Amino acid sequence: MLSRRMFTGCAVCAAIGLAADDASAQAPSGIKRAITSRVDGPVEGYETLQVVVDLEPNFVLDWHTHPGTEAGYTVGGVGELRVKGKEAQMLKPGASWVTAAETPHMLQNGSEATKLFVTFTVQKGKPLSSPAPAPTE
C-alpha cells in the first residue's frame, strides 16, 4: 500500500521537474516549478537542469534522492533543509546548498511563500528523483 507520505514525496518530486521527462506535468497543490534550462553535460551521460521552484507556505517536500548533484539558492522566503547525516540548515534569501548524489533530503517551508533556484546535474535516462525513507539517526 502506498502511504500518504510516500505518495506526497513522489508527487512533489515529479512536480518540481525532477521527473523532468515531461516538463509540462501538472504540479500538485502547494508547489509550482518552471524548468528554465535543460542541456546535455557536463559529461557524457549527464544532463543539467535549472529550475525555479515556488513553494506555498508550510509546504513539505518529503524525503527523496537524486541520481546526481542538486545545488540550490534561496531567492525568497524561509524554510528548513534537512539532509541525512547533517545538521538542519535554515534557508533564507541568499542561502545556498549542495546535496550529493543519492543523499536523502527534505525541505519544510516556512509560514510564507518561498522561491528557490535549483540546478540538477543528473544521469540521463534515470528517474530524476526517488522517494526515500526518513533517516532514523
The H-and-E topology, N to C, reads as HEEEEEEEEEE
Helix content: under 10%
Question: Which term fits the overall shape?
Answer: globular
Relative strand content: over 45%
Number of domains: 1
Round the Cα radius of gyration to an integer and report it: 14 Å
CATH class, please? Mainly Beta
- Count the DSSP helices: 1
Question: What is the name of the CATH topology?
Answer: Jelly Rolls
Note down, in words, how this protein is organized.
The chain has 137 residues and is mainly β. It has a single domain, classed as Jelly Rolls. 9% of the residues lie in helices and 47% in strands. The longest helix has 12 residues, at 4-15.
Describe the structure concisely for a colleague.
The protein is 9% helix and 47% strand.
Give the SSE map.
Elements: H1 4-15, E1 31-40, E2 46-55, E3 60-65, E4 68-76, E5 79-83, E6 89-91, E7 96-99, E8 105-109, E9 114-123, E10 130-131
Antiparallel strand pairs: 1-2, 2-9, 3-8, 3-10, 4-7, 4-9, 5-6, 5-8
Task: Label this structure with key terms.
5-stranded antiparallel sheet; 1 helix; 137 residues; Jelly Rolls; 10 strands; mainly beta
